[in-house]
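>> received
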Amino acid sequence: MISDTLRGFGRSFLRRSRVLRFNVKRAVGLTDRPTLVVYPGRVARGRLTILGRVLEDEGVFDAAHSNSSLRNLWLTFKRYETDEIGGARVSYSGPVGAGEVHSDSEGYFEIALDASRLEEGAAPWTPLRFTLQTARGYDFAPVDAEGRARVVSSQARFGVISDIDDTIIHTGAFKLLRHWRIVTANSPEARTAFPGVSEFYRALCDGAAGPETNPVFYVSSSPWNLSDIFERFMALKNIPAGPMLLRSLSSDALGWLLRRHRNHKDRAIDDLMADYPDLRFVLIGDSGQKDATVYAAAVERHPGRVLAVHIHDVRPKGTVSDEVERELRRIEAAGVPTTLGRTLEAAAAHAEGAGLVAPGTHAAVLAEIAEEAGKPERFGPFPVIVQP
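>> returned
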C-alpha cells in the first residue's frame, strides 16, 4: 500500500516536473530537436508488437566513444535525464500494415498489429519503417527510423531467456559504486563481454533454419535508456540480437533505485512463456541480481517449460552466502539441470551433452575463453556445479 502510494506520488511528481521543465526550456529557447527511438519488437500469437519512444535529441545516442570519465559521467546523466515528448504523431508502415500512433506523456508509443498472414519466410526479422511527423511545441523536418520485429521460425527447437548486466556484459551492476566507471560508460566500445558468451549464444540460436532459428530474449532490470548501448554492443561482439524486455524508469523509478528486480523479471518471463506456448526455454543469468531466485520461481510456475538454468557467478571470492546454491538445488529438485561458474564452460558442456548445441561447441567456448584471457597455457578448470 505504501509502495503503491509512493509510486503514484513519484509518477505525479515526474509528470509535473516534465511540464515545468519543458515550459522553461521553450521559454528560453533551449529545446532540442526531437528524435525517434524504436526498440526491437516481436511477433507472437498472431500479433506484432513493438515499442518506441520520442525524446529530445541531446547528443547522447550518437556520441563518439570517449575514455574521459567526466565526459562519460555527463553523458550518462543526460541519458537518464531524458526530455520526453508526449503527444507526438508517429506514422509506421511494413508488411503487416500501416497507420499512425501518438506518444504518451512519457514519450512512449506501442503498436500491436495483426500478423496472422505474415509468411514463414519473414523469419527471423520483419522490418517496419517509422516517421516522426509532428510534435507540439517543436519545429522540425520529419524524422525517420527503422524498426524490426522478431519472427520465430516453426523450426525453432527452444528459446533462450537471458539477463544482460553481468551475464553477457560486464557492468558491475551488483557493485554500483565500486564499478561506477563501467556503469557510466556511454559507448559499446567501453564495455566488455564475458569470455565465451558470443560463441555459446550463437550455438544456442543456431538451427535448421539458420543462425537465428532459436530465438533469444533479453530480460533485464536495466532501463530502456540503455537499449541502444546494448544493441550496438551485441552487434559489435557478434552476440545474437533479440527483443529486449527492459524497465521504464518513468513508471518505476523507485523500484529501479531500490534495485527491485523480481516483479519486472517475473512478469517478463511469464509473458514470454504465454507468447510462445510451444517453446521450452534455457534460462541464463548471474548471481548478482537474484536471477537464481527468479528462475527457481519461474520453473515452479511453468513446469516442464525450462530445459536448463545457467548462472554466471560474479560474487566476490570468499562470499559466505549460499543463497544462489540453495536456489539452484530448488531448481534441480524440479528436475531441471543447472550450472554455476565463473565462465560458460560448464554451461556449454551441458548444452552439448544434452544435444541443444552442435558438437564442438564446448571446445569452441573453451577456445574463446582462453583467447580472451590471453593465457591459454594457464587455462584450467573453473568452479562449477553441474547436475545432469
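>> The chain has two domains: 31-150, 159-386.
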